[in-house]
Structures are given as structure tokens and as C-alpha cells.
Amino acid sequence: MRLHNIDTVEIREKDHLLRKSYLDKSNLSPDLNMEPLGQLSFVKIKGLANFWEGKDEKEFDFDAIMSDVLSGFSSLQSTFTFLLIGSPKEIGVYVGTDQFNQSILSSSLHASYPYAKLQEVEMDEMSRKLRSIGNNGGIITGIPTNKTFGESKSQQIERLCTGMYGGSWAYIVVAKSMSPFQVTLAHERVLNEIDNVSKFIKVSESGGSLGKESWEVTNLTIQKYVDNLNSLEESIDSGRTMGMWRVAGYYLADQFVNATKLRNLITSVYNGEQSKPEKIRALPVDNILYYASNFQFPANELPRQKAMKHPIGVWDLHGEGITKEVHCYKYLYQTILPTGELSTLCQIPRKEMPGFYIDQYVEFDVANRRSIHDESNSFTVGKIINGNEEIKSYEKLEPSNLIYDMDLMDLSRHGLIVGITGGGKSNTSKGLLRNLWNKHRIPFMVIESAKREYWEMYNMEGFEDVLVFTLGAEDENSVPYRINPFEKIEGVPLQTHIDYVLSTFKASFELYAPMPHVLETSIYQIYEDRGWDILSNKNKYGANVFPTLDDLYYKVDVVVDNLGYDQRLKSDITAALKARIHSLRVGGKGAMLNTDKSIPIADLLSRPVILELEDIGDDDVKAFMMGIILVQLYEYRRTKLTRNKGFEHLILIEEAHRLLANVSGGGEGNVRAKSVEFFTNLLAEIRSYGQGFLIADQVPTKLAPDTLKNTNLKIVHRIVMQEDRELIGQSMNMTQEQIEYISSLRRGFAAVYAEGDMRPKLVQMPYVKEDFDYSRRTVIQNVKDAVKNEFHHYDRKYDFGPACAFCMDKCNRREEMGKIKGFIVKQNWLRDMLEDAKNAEFKPDWFEGLFEMLENNGMSSLRNYHTRLCTLNVFLDNRDLEESYKREAVINYMKHNLLKDE
């Protein structure tokens, strides 16, 4: 029927073309015509950070982000592909574009999706993935409706993934941008069509019995057609500003039933009120795998007559004597979509699923606020990571403002590295030490209490001379160490050293009253026994010899006896205190600590040195060892270095809580707390002597609070416990979001904070690789040979009797003792002499008489001081007397001689 010069049949046919109604009746041929898309490059989006959390949905449109990405590619006249590939194990999210635009794609995704983790995938690999799925599926056409589901704001793409989870399937969208000129022409043509047709929607007619009645008639066919034209106009108008695309899609599945399931999901998820004039269709196609896996456009065209009839199918453009054919809707299985509608089909999921993770999104500072005046003093910590930046290998990093660096001199203000096992602490420490030595030639010492990892630095270029000591181990596969806790550095007041040693004992062992008093009294007395005057710092015997742990152990009996406690209390005090001291005297610990001389600390501070404490099983002993080493170092720095000399040396303390423990006050804890305070104060003061400390630990709450306060550089790897995160976070001015985020830090990444930072920065630490592959046995043997050549004389110990402690010669004189004993036995005097000595209580006068009698009977060698000491050993060794009082007998004799000489 023709109404006012409008052919409604033609209008209806045009409307069918707009809605592609012909596809509802179509049985698609397996012989599709295809348009190649060229060489493509892909990236797999492995995960995102939930940067949308906490934002008002009314003000923040997540879907618009993909629109922005697509809009940028539209201006490049580029190709864009989006894929979901499901398998029983995972669902992969992929995005692709022309090969020459791959870098732009990665940059756009990082700029739009902070912390997106991307992995490049070759086109051949993508094709193989698709071919492994199966040949069941078809083509997707139509206009999607952007909609969310339920209160959880579930995305359509997530419903698709959830519905197909566990199967082998693929959802593919391919799009090619249209030229702006073509879109503008199409928009003008649609507007003209609307103008030409819309005026016929309603017409006035007149009639009636008198011919004076009039009424308005609505042509519903034209109304629906114009409505569809208006929808098309809005779509194209949007495309004029944001970009317009030719779009087609594919769906694949391993089985026919799964393909049918996927087909139904696609149509139900994407169809809606906005799917006008062309609804979403998923059309089965035979042999679809070939077309989909080769990333081609279906290029079957409408019959020319129908294409010419379509409002924006094919038409001729006339101008300046030139006629040019223009087309938009001439393809059967392609849909023209603006960027916004295309983005609905290509949304990245917001929910985690196997193969696609969602991390917590937290913003860290990225700008350097510090200025380093001398570039030669620039100390590199790592690479600052921006949430919008692709994480590349550290080796490819070029110097830029993304380097986290600091002034080398600031390392004297100490550092702290914390994080759980496996978070990257050791790698970070090794990286800092390698940089420190190889680039700046600053020596260091590692005190490694729990594991054996730092010996591996021997396998790094530049560390051929590193020394590795195995504290507490004396077997063939070890490098023994020697340190006498009572040996002070020359120039340090004796009173000061005694205070340091006492603090070390109290910080390492649990001492209840009156044990601290007994210990202090015993230490003072063993120094006096060795001839030391506490006030003058001089030795009365003219010797530079110091007490040993043996002296302290046996002195406890004498001191407790003299204090007058009742028998039960005396036994308890003696047993408890001697048990603690004895733990330092036995086995390898005794060989190391119960020695006359220490390896000179000065010889260890000029090169990289590693002290392994793993063979010491007792935590208290480990703490004692760490404390004594720090005391030795502190004394050396005080006497050898002037203040303000810059940064000279670094000490790394692993598992530092063993010494710098968080101890509460009260009772025994108060004694230990004061000693821990001594060491924290030591750390604060020693920086002025050019000594830096790097403290490493797993649990921040186990460390003394001042440790966190007195460290400038803080490097925080993954920490799980909330109380630990809160504590360290507050010391670094972290936001609450950052505090929560450090529980999920990846290995090799850390939050780093130092003076000059407003808030922490997220830093990727350099991965430390070994340059050689020497075994531990080889390394230990090489170091052992080097140590033996340089420090061989410190490995000797002479202890043939209680008098040896006072011998200044320290040579092998045991044969002297044999001669003396043989002489006495030959004369058959030994039994009578011992009985006489017992009655005389081994007093000095008796020994003098003994020596005089022996000299008178032919032992002229007794005029030698050392021989007299050997004689004392002979008598005391054969006497049933407690070791403590054998030593007292020697001490009394030495004091007697000193008074006699005076």
C-alpha cells in the first residue's frame, strides 16, 4: 500500500535490512568469503589490580576504560582483537592488534589498567591455542547492550566465563576501524533518511458525513523504521567522536553441546534494550575453526540490490564531476559498532578466575625527592615501579629517574630489611652488598645466624678474597674463628669494656637476682687475678694477657662461697650461672670463645667477611656471639677513627632479634631490657664513626622499638601478620592501603622508605646471579687455606694446668712438667709433699719453701719463672682439689710474688 508517496513495503524491507532479519532464516554456507587481517601481535592479560574498589559507581565507569583504549586505536586506523580462551585449568584473556602497533597496545593497557601484568604471545601460538579447542561454533553479529547483573555488578564477560568454566572454548571479537570520512558520510545519509521518512509517520486525514471531520493517522511501519534509524544515528554519531568499527565475532567449543551452551550464553548476556536495530545473534557455521584460528573477517556481501536499498549499505557519492561508491553495511556477517558498543564485547573481567588474578591496588610514590650532589656517591637500591609501567628485567634498565638511589654516606645511618621467608630479603641484601663492594669498594661483614647463604657471594665477580668463618664449627669442612670476650681493644678503658661485656651477657641470657651481681663480681675479680688494675688500665705483671671463660667459670664458685648465702641458695646460684657460662666453653663454642687471643678485628674490616653462626644451636649463645662482635667493633671504631669521617664499613646482621629483642620490663626482663637498650644506643652512636648497620629480620615486632626508630633506610618485603605490618607501616608513613598491600607483595619487590621520601616507593630489587659455580666445600677449603696463612697463630691454645694462664711465654713447655714430676717421683717425695701441701692449704709461703727445697736438691731450673709455673701445675694436677681452688692457689701465689717484689 502506498501512503502519501511512501511505499510502506519498501520501508518494511529497509527495516528488515537494518535489523538483519534475513539472518534469522539463514543456513550459513561453510564456504565463507574471508578478508585477511594481516600479521597480528597479542598480549595475555594475566591479571589486574582492583583500582576500581572503593570508587562510586555513579562517578566511575569501568567499562569506559576499554572505550578509551579502543578510541586510541581507532584513530590509528588499526585492527583490534579480543579473546577469551577457556580450558579445564584456566581462562586466558588476550588482546591483539597489528604487529607494528604492539608496543602501543601494551602502553595503552598499562596506562588504563594500573598494575596490569602482560605477557606477549605470538600469532602462531594463538592460532595453535584455538586449533586445540575444536571445530564446533559459529559467528557472532549484532549490537550488544551494556548491562550489569545484581548487586554485585557482575559484568557480562564474567557471566560468560562463569557459565563456561571448566570447558574448552573460545570467544573471539575481531574489529577493524573505519575512516572518519566514511563515518561522517554515513551519519549524513542516515540523517537525510530520517528527515525524508519521519514526516510520514503521522498524517492528517479528513472525512465524515459532512466532510468536515479530521484525524491523525500513525504509520507504525514507518514509526518502527524511524526508531531503528534513530538508534543507528545515535550509534554513528557516537562513532564520529570515539571511533567506528567493522566488527565480527566467533565462538568455539570442544563439543557440540558446549558450543550450544556458549551460543545461548552469548545471546542472553549481550542482548537487551540497546540491541537496536540489530540484535545479537550467534549463528552456527560448519568448519568455523579454520576461519577463527586464522583471524579473518567474514566478507560475504549482501546482494547488490539489497545493499543499494540499505540506508547506509552502498551508495554513490557525487562531487566535482566525480562519482565514488561509498559503503558501510554491505557485509552479511559484520556489524558496524561505535567504540563504546565494541567495548561492551571486549571488557576485561573484574573478578578473579583461574588464569586471571585480581591484585589489591595501592598507589606508591614514584618521584625522587632527594638530590645527590656527588654522583659518584649515588648508591642504587633498585628500580622504582610505577603501577602504569610494564615490569621489565632489571638488566635492561637504563639510568633514569625510576632508579631508587640514595647518597652512599646515608648508609652510616643504618638500614632495616624485613619480610617473611622467601620474600627476597637475602637476594636484596646480596644485591646491596655486591653494589657496595664492587662499585664503591666499601667493605662489609655479614653476621649470619640461621642459614648459610652468603658464602655464595664467593661465586660473584670481585669476591674472590671474601673470608667465610664457620663460628662454632671445628671440623675439616669449616673455617674456625677465635674471639676472647674479655680481650679489649687497646685504648679502651677496662671499666668500659667490662660494662660492655656485662651488657652482652645480660642481653643474651636470662639472669635472675642475684646472678647479675655474682657475674659482675666474678668478672672484676678475674681481671684482677690476671694483674689488671681497673683504675689505671695497667697490668701489674707487665703482661697484656686477659682472662678467659675458664677463669670466669671457676671464679663463680669462689665468689658465691665468699658471699655467705645458705647452702641451697648457693647451689642454685652456682649451678644456674655456671650452666650459662659452661654453654660457651664446650665443643666448638669453647674452642672459639675460650681462647687467649682474638683474631684482630682490624684485619677483618678491610674486606668482605661472612660469619656463619648456624652451627651454634643455642639462641642465647648466638646472641652472645653477635653482641661480643659488636662490642669488639665498637671499641675498635672508637679508638681508631675520628668522628665525621663519612661511611667506612657496613655490618649486616641477620635475625637481629636474637640480640636486639623487644623485651618488656619487670623482673628478669628489666635486666635484659636495659642491655638491649645499650646495644640500640650503640647503633645510634656508632654511625658517627663511619660504621653502618643493615638489620635483617622476619618479624618486626620481635625487634626492639629503637631499632625501627634508628634506621634510616627501610626495605619491606612481604609481611603477613597484621601487627607486624602495622608496626613497620607506621614507621614508614604508610597509608592503610599500603599496610594491607605488603601482605601480598611478590618476591623481589619491596616497599622502600628513607629520609626525603614522603611515603614509601614500590621497588623491584635486582636479581643477584652468580658468576661462578664453586661448591661450598671448595669455597671453604680455599678460605681455610687463606685464613691459615694469615691467622695461624690465633688457633693455638696452651692449657696444661691452672698455672698456664699466667705464663707469658706461651710455648710448648709440657716437657718441663714431665721432668719436674719425674725428678720428684724419683726422690719418692710426691706423697709426702702433697700431704704437707694439704696441711698448708697450698699457701704461697709453702710453695716458696717447696721451690727452695727443690733447688737445694738439684733443680736449678726452678729459678726460671716459667718453670715454677710448671711446678705448680704438677702439684695441683695431682691433688684432689676442686679446679676453682687450684686456680685460687695459683692466683694467691702470683699476688704473693707481686707483693714480695714491691
UniProtKB/TrEMBL annotation:
Q: Which UniProt keywords apply?
A: ATP-binding, Nucleotide-binding
Q: Write down the Pfam families for this protein, in alphabetical order.
A: DUF87
Instruction: Report the residue ranges that make up the Helicase HerA central domain in this protein.
Output: 410-625
One Gene Ontology molecular-function label: ATP binding
Species of origin reads Bacillus pacificus
Lineage: superkingdom: Bacteria
Q: This protein is called what?
A: ATP-binding protein
